[in-house]
Design a protein that fits this description.
- The complex is a heterodimer.
- Chain A is of the alpha+beta class.
- Chain A folds into two domains: 127 residues, no CATH class; 55 residues, no CATH class.
- Chain A has eight helices and four strands.
- A four-stranded antiparallel beta sheet of chain A has the order 2-3-1-4, with helices on one face.
- In chain A, a hairpin with a 7-residue loop joins strand 2 and strand 3.
- In chain A, helix 2 crosses helix 3, helix 2 packs parallel to helix 4 and helix 3 crosses helix 4.
- The termini of chain A are far apart.
- By secondary structure, chain B is mostly helical.
- Chain B is 60% helix and 0% strand.
- Chain B has ten helices and no strands.
- Chain B starts with a helix and ends in a 12-residue tail after the last helix.
- Classes of the chains: A alpha+beta, B mainly alpha.
- At the A-B interface, helix 1, helix 2, helix 3, helix 4 and helix 5 of A face helix 3, helix 4, helix 6, helix 7 and helix 8 of B.
Chain lengths: 210, 239
């Protein structure tokens, strides 16, 4: 403040002391010192008058009138409430933000639940097989056949058709196919005919492990 | 023979020990006023303050035993100052009443735990301050419902025009302060607490209270003359 800057330490001391003199908590010595300072410092005198006015204004009753008796009745009523223990901490209307957060969490949980049920109810065998998965064990009656490299696709298809066989696997690294009879054709009979066919290098029944 | 007499201390000397046989501590030590700053390490109390505090402690003791009459006496005794204190935080009468009741509820619950580390008034104002801040967080952005406020304002206390004008002038000035600054101004100028008291109530260091009081006073000094129709005297200058 200008007057403090101009007047030096005494005005600063007066500024610090004023509230406590006004509320009668300053020592007698401080009160007398301030009185003496105000007698010859017009700026501080003006400031003290303003502070006195402020102090008086602060001591006036508020313009908001609340019925103490009605409030007390409500408080005593709260004491009789069964859940009175929680009364001061009773749930008040939440903020919109909190409500939105709760809603988001609920929707998320619901979605995860629906997704889980859907995955669980889906067919157990997928339509693909990964490289790490073991190959499906061969069904009984299947035959492993290795055609000659010179055999044409047309001859191979014609042979399978004639013997009512169907390729169910292969060719593997060795060029072997796994074939299975399409109807009641005897595996032994088909095996004999395959071995007798020119262009078939190997025909062996697949050994099914127990 | 009382403890004070046994110690050879007179009421007007250095220390007054108010000893009681209640289960809670009610020893109040009043240190002699010195030439040091009264607003920091000393809690000066005049006879009225002492009597009021003794009465408040007795009321708390009765409340701890379940005496609702004592609660009623304490409630009425503090209603006015709590109402004015909380009106510096919010202008909503419903929130103010809710906070007063929350504060008194806690006082009812904790009466038996009051150890007398501070005056009862300081303890209660601290509870009211924390309840008030909590209410501000919960209701601060909610609009006032209906005409409740205007109705309750028109039924305000009787006072002359000059005081009413003074109160409006102050109200406009306080609008320029932060919540914490308004609280400090109210506690120091309105209630008459020391810096130590205010630090206990607001649970912050005395230095923080000093800074808030200083800035609040400077702001008011700059805006109040203008609000009163005068030209600002020493605007913007601080020591």
């Amino acid at each position: 403040m200008t007057f403090l800057r101009h007047s030096g330490g005494d005005c600063v001391r007066a500024w610090d002391t004023m509230p406590w003199v006004l509320q009668n908590s300053a020592t007698q010595e401080q009160g007398e010192w301030l009185e003496d300072h105000l007698a010859h410092c017009e700026s501080c005198r003006t400031e003290f008058a303003q502070q006195s006015r402020l102090r008086h204004a602060m001591s006036l009753p508020t313009d908001i009138s609340i019925d103490a008796n009605a409030g007390l009745r409500r408080l005593l009523g709260r004491l009789d409430m069964p859940d009175a223990q929680e009364a001061p901490y009773r749930s008040r209307p939440r903020h919109g933000f909190s409500r939105a957060l709760v809603a988001v969490v609920l929707v998320q949980a619901l979605s995860i639940g629906v997704l889980g049920v859907k995955l669980w109810s889906a067919s157990g065998s997928p339509l693909y097989r990964t490289l790490s998965q073991e190959s499906v064990p061969a069904a009984p009656g299947t035959i492993r056949v290795v055609p000659d490299a010179t055999m044409t696709l047309a001859d191979w298809n014609a042979l399978l058709h004639a013997l009512r066989l169907q390729v169910v696997g292969g060719p593997n690294d060795m060029g072997a196919y796994t074939v299975a009879p399409t109807n009641a054709t005897s595996t032994a009979q088909a095996l004999q005919q395959l071995r007798a066919t020119r262009g078939i290098r190997l025909a062996e029944p697949v050994a099914v492990s127990p | 023979m009382g403890q004070a007499e046994r110690l050879g201390l007179g009421r007007d000397d250095f220390t007054v020990l108010l000893t009681r046989e209640q289960p809670f501590r009610v020893d109040t030590v009043l240190t002699q006023r010195t030439s040091h700053s009264p607003m920091t390490s000393i809690e000066p109390m005049n006879d009225d303050d002492i009597d009021a505090d003794v009465t408040d402690r007795m009321l708390l003791q009765r409340m701890s035993a379940g005496d609702r009459v004592a609660l009623g006496v304490l409630y009425r005794s503090y209603h006015g100052r709590l109402c004015r204190f909380l009106s510096r935080l919010t202008r909503r009468p419903d929130v103010i009443e809710e906070v007063i009741n929350d504060c008194m509820w806690i006082a009812w619950q904790k009466a038996g735990n009051f150890h007398g580390d501070s005056r009862v008034s300081t303890w209660l104002m601290g509870i009211a301050y924390r309840c008030g801040l909590k209410a501000l967080r919960q209701h601060g952005d909610e609009p006032v419902e209906g005409d409740t406020m205007s109705e309750q304002r028109t039924s305000a206390h009787d006072m002359d025009d000059e005081d009413r004008e003074l109160r409006d002038w102050l109200s406009k000035g306080l609008d320029h302060l932060s919540v914490d600054q308004r609280v400090v101004i109210e506690l120091v100028y309105g209630v008459g607490h020391t810096l130590d008291d205010v630090a206990v109530i607001m649970q912050c260091p005395v230095g923080t209270v000093k800074a808030r009081l200083f800035h609040a006073r400077v702001k008011l000094r700059n805006v109040l003359p203008a609000l009163a129709g005068e030209s600002p005297r020493h605007q913007g200058n601080v020591p």
